[in-house]
Structure formats: structure tokens, C-alpha cells
Structures
1.
Amino acid sequence: MERSKRVMWLVLLLIFVLIAGGCGTSSAEKDAKGTITIGLNNWPENIAVSNMWKILLEEKGYKVELSAMEKSPVWAGIAKGDLDIAPEVWLPQTDEPLYNEYKDQLELHEAWYEGTALGLVVPAYMDINSIEDLDKLGINTIVGIDPGASMMKLTKKLIKEYGLNYELIESSEPAMMSELTKAYKEKKPVVVTLWSPHWAFSEFDLKYLKDPKKIFGDQENIYFMTRKEFGKDYPEVLKWMNKWHMDDQSLGQLMATINKTNSPEEGAKQWIKENRNLTNQWFE
């Protein structure tokens, strides 16, 4: 009887050791995968996909940190190697100045979104369709975003090229959206700098003003970039991200879910749960 008890206790002890050892190995393997830092600026689609990738990579055993800043510091951080990934590069025109400045110090990868748009946007109730008609509005301000954004530089160029008597107001994406929302509710005239993809187009009836001089250029694609040697340090992550592709529907749903939950992380988690068929394709 005593011998049977001893055998039973030895078996239980062996099981405990095996479980503890397995857990220890799993934790060590997880820690061994390292920390990845994603640099993002305050654009809705940038926040959305950065949180999406944070969750997806953490599921694969990586530790992921998000570092929020304006666009120019993101490029500088990637070039210096202080950041690992930046998910949003608009080319061939919008981010061309930054790309030309830093292209030898970073690595540009696959396009994950095709067919963007950007320009001056007004509510559909406004009786104006072209940038050339802006001086007929009776207002003299364009509400912009953060001063370091390439779009702001293009807008300054646009004001000069069209000879507009307008002031470009520097603010941020949330501040710009606040001004648009307020004016829209009161049916007042307002002109903002905006881009697609953006959740605003699903919330409001908006329109781009025609740009005959094509200051904002034609449609572009969105790429992601990494620091030098990132692919060498994290080959499987780069492989996964090069398979990443989203369209208006998938990206729009992701941004809308985040907007409804009022939490980038929770919204991204919910969207991932509902779109495993899509995200699983990136890891095949």
C-alpha cells in the first residue's frame, strides 16, 4: 500500500515537472522572439492597421510596442533604426519628399492598399465642385492636419498655384474632424484636407473638389517600410507582412469598428475575430 502511494506521488511529481518545464520553455521561446516597435502617426487607417498588427504579432509570440508621433519623426526613426516598422507610405507622390530624403536608410516593401485619394473635401450640400471656385465661398480658411504631413505641403503649394486667398490652418486629424463635424451639423461651409481611406466618408456625405492642375496627383498606393536589416532579424514577420493586402471594404470595416468601440485595441481585436479568413491568408 505504502509502495503504491509512493509510486503515485512520484508519477504526480513527474507530471508537474513536465508541465512546469513545458511552460518554462514556452515562455522562453516567446521572450526569444523579441520586441518589435511600430511607428505610427495620427491617421485613422494608420492607427487601425498598427493595432491590428500589434495583436496579430503578439498572437505569434512577439512583444509589440506602438510609438505614436508625427509623420516626419516616423521616417527619421525608421532611418535611424529606432523604429522597426512603419505601416503607411503613400507613393508615388504624397510621401515622395520624405522617401527621397531617407530612401537609402530604410527598406520599402509591398503595397498593402491600392488606389488612394487625397485632396480638398467639402460637404455635398455645398454648391461648389472645383478648387478653382473656392474664392466664391465667402470663407478664407482650409482646415488642415499636422504641419509635418506631406499633404499640408501639397496644400500650401495648391494655394499658391491656384492663387487662392486662403489660410491653411495647422491642427491635427482629430481637430480637423471636429471642425468638419461641427460645420456639417450646422450645414455651414467648410473646406478640409482629407484622404481615402477614411471613416469620414461613411459617416458624412462628402465630395472631393476637382483639381484641374493635379497638385494632389493621381491615385496612389500605400506601402509599408522597415528599418535596414529588419528582414534579416525578423524574416517570418517580413514574409507575413508582404502577404498583407486590404481593400476599401476590409479597411473601412476595421476603421468603423474601431470608431464604434472608441478603442483601437478592442476594435482591432473584434475585427480580427470577425475576419480570420482574411488574416489567416497572410500567415500561410
2.
Amino acid sequence: MKDADQAAGPAGRPRRADARRNEEALLEAAAAVFVESGVEAPVRDIAARAGVGTATIYRHFPTRADLIIAVYRHQVEACAQAGPDLLATGPTPYAALGKWISLFVDFLVTKHGLAAVLRSDDAGFDALHAYFLDRLVPVCTHLLDAAAGSGEIRSDLQAYELMRGVGNLCIGAENDSRYDARRLVEVLVAGLRRPD
């Protein structure tokens, strides 16, 4: 079985390492621009952030939907991989959980607008949502279990509930400058702590 880094290119050949790095840089740049300006941001802004021409982006991602879906999948994977890393390096499981939730909020911000882009393809949207849940609920579960096991947080919350609550706090934040979803998410995560 091929490693994810050895994903086959168009002719079935493994892609070169520099091609994989270039695509990674494009996805990182697109995610950053989407956080700042939404998924309808001009492609030239993404190209400028990545230090490439717009033709390079279109060569990798022929349509905006292709780019948005690739960013979505890339960020799901980054979020999934971050959980164990944060748990291994964080000072406490609760601190790791808090940092992971912050990354999750970043992901949710870039996700806004995805439904509109995929509106004509409900099956595609459903598949992406299932992928999101399959990859991230177990990671959040592991972080919650570790923090509960260390006695830092209450143990009666399920990962899906927490993720859904965070998601609900993020809805509409991009349209209201008076609303700080991150602050409310911090309050939610603080509320997980066990009373002294």
C-alpha cells in the first residue's frame, strides 16, 4: 500500500517530492487566505501568498470547488494528526485539548462557504462530512479521555457533543465583527474543568 506522501500522479506514477511540497504550500496558503477573506477570495491572493502564479494553482486545482475540497481534506488531516502530537508534547492533557480545539476552530473558519460551493452535489458534501467525523471524532475522544483520566476535566462529555457545540459557536462569526466566537469557545473549554 502506498504511503500518503507517495500518492500517484495523473499517469499513475508516484509524484515527485517537490510537487508534493508545492501542493502542500498551495493548500496552506489557500487555508490562510480563506480564514482571512472566505472561500470566495480571489485566486490571485492565494497565488501571491504561496509565491506562485495563478496558472500553478489551476494546474493543481482546475476549479474553485477542487481547491476548497482539497483544503478541507488537508485541514482535516492536519487536525487529526495534531491531536496525538499535542498530547505527547503538551504540558497537560487539558492544555493539549485546548490547543486542539483552537486548531479545530481555525478549521471551522475555513470550512464556511463549503456548503454553498457543493450545494449542487449533496452526495459529495455528505461524503466529506462523513470523512470529517470519521477522522476527527476519535481524535477528540482520545484528548477528552486523556484529560478526564488525568482528573483535569469532567468525564461526562462526548467528543461529538463538544465538537458540535464548538461548531455552533462558530456559525455566523465571519459576518459579525461584534461577535468573537474564539472567546466563547475559550469559555466553553474552560467550563470543562472540574470544580476545585
